[in-house]
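Researcher: Let's do a round of design. I'm pasting the C-alpha cells now; please hold your answer until I've finished.
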C-alpha cells in the first residue's frame, strides 16, 4: 500500500531532491513551498515528477493549520510526516544576521513555525484516528512523526574546534538548539501514544549524507520501511534517542553499514 507523506521545513525548490527520494520510495508526497507574490498560495501544485506542494507562511499558526488540513484532505490520512531543520541550508539566509531587530523574525520563522506545525500535526491526526471508531485497531492508520535535524557548528564550536568553515550566527544556533529541545520533548509526550510514533534523526557535519539530500532521503525512507517490518516496535528509550543518519535498523538491516 502506497504511503502518504508530508514534508515541512525545507521548502521547494530547495527540498526537491529530498522529496524526490520520497516519491522514488513509493510515497505520495506533499512538501511545503514558500509563499510567492502572485502565486495561488491557497492551492496545491504538482511538479513534473509528481511532487505535490502547498504554501506555508512560517510565522502564521493559521498557515500551519491550513497546511495540515490540505494534506489530510488530499490524502485522506497521513502515514508519515518529516519535519526538517536543515541548519546548513538556513545558514544561507540567516547566517549573517546579528541585529537584535531581526530577533523577532528569527523566533517566528525558525522557532515558532516548527512548534506550530508539530502541534497541528499531532492534534489533527490524533483527532482523526480517534474519530475513526468504525475501524479496528489493526485498520487504523497510525502516523510516524520524524524530526530531522541537520546541524552546523556554532560560532563557539568553530573557535574551540578551530574550524575554518562558516559558523551559524548566534540567533541561528539558538534556533537550532530550540528545535532539538522541542523535538525531544514532543517525542517524550508521544512515547506511549497508540496513534503517533516519534522518531528523532540527526545528521551532523561529519556525516557523509550531510551535503547530499538524495542519499539522505534514500536512507531515511528505506529506514522507515524497515522499522515498519520489525517484529517488535522501538522501545521508549529508542524513540527518545537521536538516530544518526545512515545507521542500521535495530533489527540488523541497514544502509551503508
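Researcher: That's everything. Go ahead.
Model: Designed sequence:
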Amino acid at each position: 500500500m502506497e504511503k502518504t507523506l508530508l514534508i515541512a521545513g525545507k521548502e521547494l525548490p530547495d527540498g526537491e531532491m529530498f522529496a524526490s527520494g520520497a516519491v522514488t520510495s513509493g510515497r505520495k508526497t506533499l512538501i511545503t513551498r514558500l509563499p510567492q507574490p502572485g502565486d495561488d498560495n491557497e492551492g496545491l501544485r504538482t511538479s513534473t515528477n509528481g511532487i505535490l506542494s502547498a504554501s506555508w507562511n512560517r510565522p502564521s499558526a493559521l498557515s500551519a493549520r491550513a497546511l495540515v488540513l490540505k494534506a489530510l484532505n488530499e490524502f485522506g490520512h497521513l502515514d508519515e510526516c518529516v519535519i526538517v531543520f536543515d541548519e546548513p541550508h538556513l545558514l544561507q539566509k540567516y547566517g549573517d544576521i546579528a541585529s537584535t531587530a531581526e530577533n523577532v523574525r528569527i523566533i517566528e520563522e525558525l522557532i515558532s513555525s516548527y512548534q506550530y506545525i508539530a502541534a497541528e500535526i499531532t492534534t489533527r491526526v490524533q483527532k482523526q484516528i480517534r474519530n475513526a471508531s468504525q475501524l479496528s485497531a489493526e485498520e487504523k492508520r497510525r502516523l510516524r512523526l520524524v524530526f530531522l535535524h541537520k546541524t552546523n557548528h556554532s560560532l563557539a564550536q568553530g573557535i574551540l574546534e578551530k574550524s575554518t568553515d562558516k559558523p551559524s550566527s548566534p540567533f541561528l544556533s539558538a534556533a537550532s538548539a530550540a528545535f532539538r529541545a522541542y523535538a525531544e520533548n514532543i517525542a517524550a509526550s508521544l512515547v506511549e501514544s497508540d496513534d503517533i510514533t516519534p522518531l528523532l534523526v540527526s545528521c551532523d557535519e561529519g556525516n557523509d549524507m550531510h551535503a547530499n539530500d538524495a542519499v539522505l532521503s534514500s536512507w531515511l525512507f528505506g529506514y522507515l520501511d524497515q522499522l515498519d517490518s520489525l517484529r517488535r516496535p522501538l522501545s521508549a528509550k529508542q524513540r527518545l534517542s537521536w538516530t544518526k543518519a545512515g545507521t542500521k535498523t535495530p533489527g540488523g538491516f541497514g544502509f551503508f553499514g
